[in-house]
């Protein structure tokens, strides 16, 4: 599991302690992108659309793509914008606007959407992000856990090996039963000062929790209880 640590992590001197980590930089807060590209193994570039949505601001997709243009290239990748609360058809249409190589972007499957739409994304993209929304917004809740179980049961029915699934805001589930290939979180940036903790040591502890590679159907489905 690749652990992407969110920024901004201030002051810069503290961020430099994190050299060699993987970083997540949002278009909504691009303050430290140059440092992250210089010292990080890789950078996940988030579109920040949810931040704009919660603040009641319009997300400017054109400016996002202009920002990405000089930054994208392997091993770095970006989250493809979608329409928050939009229909599956609307979001499929939005994916067609992506101006870069497909393998440099990852679409979002909000886990309240259909498995048919998840299947479409898996069949067409090398990496898919899971986003917690709707009735499943709370990561780690019983309802969220069951939905993620069902999602991986569905993926197992289509694939022997799991596709690359990135869990948005999901570093807290590292070490749990789900085979996420990567996840991100701003836990370190937001909390190291409050906890009076060295950010690199805090990140190192989070990085020590890995996810399994494979998925086995839970017994409840095998018994026909789902």
Overview of this protein structure:
35% of the residues lie in helices and 15% in strands. It is globular and about 45 Å long. The model is unreliable at 221-226 (pLDDT under 50). It has ten helices and nine strands. It has helices at residues 12-16, 33-39, 49-54, 61-68, 88-95, 115-124, 142-158, 187-191, 199-207, 219-222, and strands at 2-6, 22-26, 43-46, 77-79, 105-106, 108-110, 127-131, 164-167, 182-185. It has a single domain (2-222), classed as TIM Barrel. The longest helix is centred in the middle third of the chain and has 17 residues, at 142-158. It has 226 residues and is α/β, with parallel strands linked by helices. The protein has a nine-stranded parallel β-sheet.
How would the blueprint of this fold be written?
Elements: E1 2-6, H1 12-16, E2 22-26, H2 33-39, E3 43-46, H3 49-54, H4 61-68, E4 77-79, H5 88-95, E5 105-106, E6 108-110, H6 115-124, E7 127-131, H7 142-158, E8 164-167, E9 182-185, H8 187-191, H9 199-207, H10 219-222
Parallel strand pairs: 1-2, 1-9, 2-3, 3-4, 4-5, 6-7, 7-8, 8-9
Keywords, separated by commas or semicolons:
single chain, 226 residues, alpha/beta, TIM Barrel, 9 strands, globular, disordered C terminus
CATH uppermost class: Alpha Beta
Report the C-alpha radius of gyration, rounded: 17 Å
Strand content: 15-25%
Q: Note poorly predicted spans.
A: 221-226
Q: How many domains, as an integer?
A: 1
Largest sheet: 9 strands, parallel
For the largest sheet, list the strands in their spatial order: 5-4-3-2-1-9-8-7-6
Q: What structural category arises from helix and sheet content?
A: alpha/beta
The shape is globular
Provide a count of the helices. 10
- The CATH architecture designation is Alpha-Beta Barrel
Query: What is the terminal separation in angstroms?
Result: 28 Å
| pLDDT averaged over residues | 92
Count all strands and give the number.
9
Order of helices and strands: EHEHEHHEHEEHEHEEHHH
Roughly how much helix do the residues carry, as a percent range?
Answer: 25-40%
Quote the CATH topology. TIM Barrel
């Amino acid at each position: 599991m690749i652990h992407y640590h969110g920024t901004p992590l201030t002051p810069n001197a503290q961020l430099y302690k994190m050299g060699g980590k993987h970083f997540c930089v949002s278009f909504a807060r691009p303050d430290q992108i140059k440092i992250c590209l210089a010292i990080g193994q890789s950078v996940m570039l988030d579109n920040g659309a949810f931040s704009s949505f919660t603040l009641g601001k319009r997300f400017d997709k054109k400016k996002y793509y202009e920002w990405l243009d000089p930054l994208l290239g392997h091993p770095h990748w970006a989250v493809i914008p979608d329409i928050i609360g939009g229909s599956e058809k609307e979001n499929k249409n939005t994916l067609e606007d992506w101006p870069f190589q497909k393998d440099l972007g990852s679409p979002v499957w909000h886990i309240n959407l259909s498995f048919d739409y998840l299947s479409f994304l898996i069949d067409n993209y090398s990496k898919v992000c899971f986003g917690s929304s709707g009735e499943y917004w709370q990561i780690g809740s019983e309802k969220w856990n069951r939905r993620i179980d069902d999602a991986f049961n569905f993926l197992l029915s289509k694939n022997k090996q799991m596709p690359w699934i990135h869990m948005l805001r999901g570093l807290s589930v590292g070490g749990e039963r789900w085979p996420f290939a990567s996840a991100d979180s701003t836990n370190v940036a937001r909390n190291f000062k409050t906890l009076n903790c060295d950010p690199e040591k805090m990140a190192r502890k989070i990085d020590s929790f890995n996810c399994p590679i494979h998925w086995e159907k839970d017994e409840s489905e095998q018994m026909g209880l789902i």
